[in-house]
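Morning F.,

Quick status update on the modeling queue. The single chain you submitted on Monday has been processed. Sequence for confirmation:
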Amino acid sequence: MNARPSEPRHWQAAAEPSDYYTGGPTWASDPAGHALLRINRAGGPAEATAQAATEAVLVLHSIRRILLWTAVLLPLAVVLGALLLSMEPTR
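Structure tokens below.
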């Protein structure tokens, strides 16, 4: 059941500050275990669903960041480096 207004809530439908200071979860610890703890601390099914959705958004954000680096930025750096190396020096 949901917590009464006089009782403290034991759930949080958002990521904790330590999880998003880098824009995503901190991978130095066990992110899946911490996510499950936050979901299990939810006060009821609705709160657990909201927390699970928040955790999914954090994971998707991390995947997007990894894809951005591997699919866009690194190939762009390689191409620009190759172009700069292949140019003739001007005199």
